């Protein structure tokens, strides 16, 4: 089980970096809770592992608790997502300064959306971060770009 506070910034991607050589995994996640609920409960299949994740409301910093579950448990719960699903390929890499990033290339109805997330140890580090030029608009506080909102509503228009 992992848990604690997740501190991350999320950006649209202005220019796709070279993906060759980056580790990647297919990700399928579905949402049990609806947009507007006070918490987010999701099921995630990532590279053959299965997880149940609970997240609080928030933007830059949110509480997150995740437990690994068995495939049978995942399959039993999956219908509760009601089709509120996100499918993507997640690429994991590091920026020139060593800061890690996760780049999501969305599939299906959410294609050709591409976003990148960077996690931090402190809010101060997150606020001090200067994104590289291939990062686009910062959508950290734009609720329309949360995966749950994307699963419910599809790709939004321009970030606002």
Automatic annotation (TrEMBL):
CDD domains: CYTH-like_CthTTM-like (cd07761)
Organism: Alloyangia pacifica
Protein name, entry field: Adenylate cyclase
Gene3D superfamilies: Hypothetical Protein Pfu-838710-001
PROSITE patterns from the UniProt entry: CYTH (PS51707)
Domain annotation CYTH: ranges: 4-152
Lineage: Bacteria, Pseudomonadati, Pseudomonadota, Alphaproteobacteria, Rhodobacterales
Catalytic residues, chain numbering: 31
Matching Pfam families: CYTH
């Amino acid at each position: 089980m992992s848990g604690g506070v997740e501190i991350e910034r999320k950006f649209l991607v202005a220019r796709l970096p070279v993906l060759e050589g980056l580790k990647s995994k297919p990700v399928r996640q579905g949402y049990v809770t609806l947009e507007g609920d006070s918490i987010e409960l999701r099921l995630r299949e990532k590279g053959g592992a299965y997880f149940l994740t609970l997240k609080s409301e928030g933007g830059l910093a949110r509480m997150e608790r995740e437990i690994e579950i068995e495939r049978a448990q995942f399959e039993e719960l999956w219908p509760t997502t009601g089709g509120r699903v996100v499918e993507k390929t997640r690429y994991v890499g590091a920026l020139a300064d060593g800061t890690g990033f996760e780049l999501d290339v969305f599939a299906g109805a959410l294609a050709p959306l591409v976003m990148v997330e960077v996690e931090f140890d402190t809010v101060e580090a997150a606020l001090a971060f200067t994104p590289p030029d291939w990062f686009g608009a910062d959508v950290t506080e734009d609720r329309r770009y949360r995966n749950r909102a994307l699963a419910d509503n599809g790709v939004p228009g321009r970030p606002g």
